[in-house]
Design brief:
Radius of gyration: 37 Å
Shape: elongated
Structural class: alpha+beta
Largest sheet: 4 strands, antiparallel
Number of domains: 3
Distance between the termini: 70 Å
CATH topology of the largest domain: Alpha-Beta Plaits
CATH superfamily of the largest domain: Protein of unknown function (DUF541), domain 2
Low-confidence stretches: 22-28, 31-41, 215-234
Mean pLDDT: 79
Length: about 260
């Protein structure tokens, strides 16, 4: 009996030792994890924004030309639109505009109504066509004013939405992004120096939508007309301010402070 009790005491003592060892390991692991979290949360960061604007000269111009005509019948209305659009396309193509830069944006036909004594009355048939034209200034920087002036001599057409732009903005956008990152780093360095710290690696970078703006700061008189327009009744071409294109980029960067 005595031996059995002795064995039981020894067994219980071993179990207690093992349990204590396990508990110690758990506590130490918890302390290590807590210390890691404290160290992680103690990492200092700074978030700044950077903005840059790059100005470039436009190399394309775009505009729309439209023809609308009302006649007693659809055929008559359509014939007039076809004739005038033919004149427009001849002028545009003779100015060196490529086929791929001429796009039909609208083509409509249908009856036109008026209200008379609260009754809707058909007063004719209307036909219309509108095209978008992209003129490449790099190919000919003088002919756009002459082209617009020539188009303006066609009766009853609409010319609108004349805009200047860049055919490819990627190079300028890359330049703006690089300068925006430089602006962000410069700001972070100023703040860090004021706090007696230095800027470390970037933890996170995000970008807002880039934008393109038209800035008018110069005027270019376009004087050279197309050969087919030279005649005794010469007329002044349209004077167009070309301006510059502003391409901007804005980034938000989170840096580690060392």
């Amino acid at each position: 009996m005595k031996d059995i009790r002795t064995i039981r005491k020894i067994t219980m003592r071993k179990i207690s030792v093992v349990a204590f060892a396990v508990l110690a390991i758990v506590v130490l692991a918890g302390c290590s994890s807590l210390q890691g979290n404290v160290n992680a949360s103690a990492t200092s960061t700074i978030e700044v924004s950077g903005t840059a604007v790059v100005k470039v000269a436009p190399d394309v111009a775009s505009f729309t030309v439209g023809v609308t005509h009302r006649a007693p019948t659809s055929a008559e209305a359509q014939d007039v639109v076809i004739e005038k659009m033919g004149q427009i396309l001849t002028l545009v193509k003779n100015a060196g505009v490529l086929e791929k830069d001429i796009v039909t944006t609208a083509l409509d036909m249908g009856p036109e109504y008026e209200w008379r004594d609260n009754i809707r009355v058909t007063v004719g048939q209307r036909a219309s066509q509108r095209i978008s034209v992209t003129y490449r200034l790099a190919e000919d920087s003088d002919g756009l004013g002459g082209l617009l002036a020539a188009l303006g001599r066609i009766d009853a057409i609409e010319i609108s939405s004349v805009r200047f732009g860049r055919d490819d903005e990627e190079a300028a956008l890359s330049d703006a992004r690089a300068k925006a990152m430089g602006d962000a780093l410069s700001k972070a360095s100023d703040y860090a120096a004021g706090a007696g710290r230095s800027v470390g690696r970037a933890l996170r970078i995000s970008e807002t939508n880039s934008s393109t703006n038209f800035l008018r700061n110069e005027s270019l008189e376009l004087k050279t007309a197309m050969p087919m327009m030279a005649s005794a009744d010469a007329y002044a071409p349209v004077e167009l301010p070309t301006g510059e294109i502003e391409i901007s980029a804005t980034v938000y960067v989170v840096y580690v402070l060392d």
